[in-house]
Amino acid sequence: MPKFGDVILAQIQFVDTFEIKSRPAVVLFEEYGNVVVAGITSNVEMKGIPLSKKEGAIKESVIKLNYIFTISEKMIKKILFSLSSEKKKIIVSELIKKLV
Known about the structure:
The protein has one helix and six strands; from the N terminus they run ββββββα.
């Protein structure tokens, strides 16, 4: 079962096409087989939370909290690594700012 802070590789369908690609994402929560995730991009020009190679990313990346979606746990290919507790606190803090 994936848990908050796991960085996963999953089959993701893009909003503007019917194309499905394997992409990394951060698990926000899982419930009843549905997994809510935030997308990750290697386009470091985009706004979001930085994710470094030192933290486990394949390349310097950004966690995009403006790109949150739900996938089935069956779409998860594998768990790549887990974020540190410090990085998870940043995610929670940034999500709260967006909700208030």
